[in-house]
Protein: DNA-binding GntR family transcriptional regulator
Organism: Haloactinomyces albus
Amino acid sequence: MAGNRPQRRPVVELYERIVDAIREGAYPPGSTLPSEPALAAALGVSRPALREALLLLQEDGMITVRRGVGRTVSERPARRGFERLQPIESLLGEDSARTRPLTRTAEEPTDLVMQHLPVPANCEVRFWESAVDVDGVPACLAEEWSVHDEALAAVDPALPQILDDAIARPHTMLHTLVSVDSHLPLSGASTVTATVLGRRRGATFERSPDTPVVLVTQVVSLESTTLLAAKYVLPSGTPGITVRQSR
């Protein structure tokens, strides 16, 4: 009925209860969980239901299972939602991915960019376009826009110069920011759509314009301040990207 929120499956509710207990310190990192009978009794659930939730926790890296030891809480439990924001180079493989700078310029923001970035129409924003090759084969086209320099400097006065110095380096804009401080509390919101490569991008990949692609549109923020908007074009045949999402 309209207005009603969908109910979570019982196994998901149980999963979240155990995750909350881990995060609140009831089962600290490195500790061994109680036996199945004891844990089921403490949670007031059946052992089959508990076993299913524990399996999901193991899949998501919250717990590990070792013969003779039992179920142990992971030292670094997975974060809620998507795992720590990473540059596309890292997701495609640090050892095999190589970034080629294609365009490094400043331009007036398009309507599309202004939908994602809080910038005035008459300002200039940085635009970086990069090809990411995996084992020598083009695997991703990254198009990134930053907020104008005044907004960057309001977050950190050094950021505009950091991006200026990185123009010729073989990295995406996001990789550059993460490299400055890997502990920077960046977060990303992404949408995923299916489309085709198109003529211009097809020339970059040396593929047919009709090649199916996955398009990831991402907005990157530092706390409540939006910094970057990006499109990542991933044609068919691109290596798989592992993304963890909590249930």
